[in-house]
């Protein structure tokens, strides 16, 4: 019985460790997307701006999944800053503040 309990505990530990690794991987991906968005925006073309918006949107989704509130807020703010219409920009900035 002790062996079975030990095996169950070991399996649970391994599963939780893998979950933490997956979360860390998502967080790293979100940060990388943010860096790519910054680089894309710096190019200054309309196409690079569109690319930055896509990258910031994906980064915001990943930050939300890993519960990085600051990262998500920053991504949403940048989406709002780059948004074409004033209404869209305000909507993203409101989400960033929540």
Write down the overall mean pLDDT: 80
Specify the structural class: mainly alpha
Order of helices and strands: HHHH
Please tally the helical runs, counting DSSP H or I stretches of 4 or more residues.
4
Tell me the distance between the termini. Answer: 50 Å
**Percent in helix:** over 70%
What is the assembly state of the chains in this entry?
Answer: single chain
Strands, count: 0
**How is the main sheet built?**
none
* Dominant shape: flat
Backbone CA Rg: 19 Å
Low-confidence residue ranges: none
How big a fraction of the residues is strand? under 5%
Brief sketch in words of this structure:
Helices cover 90% and strands 0% of the residues. It is mostly helical and 98 residues long.
Which terms would index this structure?
90% helix; 98 residues; mainly alpha
Fold and architecture overview:
α1 runs antiparallel to α2 (46-65) and α2 (46-65) runs antiparallel to α3 (69-82). The mean pLDDT is 80. The N and C termini lie far apart (50 Å). By secondary structure, the protein is mainly α. The chain is built from four helices and no strands. It has helices at residues 2-43, 46-65, 69-82, 86-97. It is 90% helix and 0% strand. It is flat, with a radius of gyration of 19 Å.
Topology of helices and strands:
Blueprint: H1 2-43, H2 46-65, H3 69-82, H4 86-97
Helix pairs in contact: 1-2, 2-3, 3-4
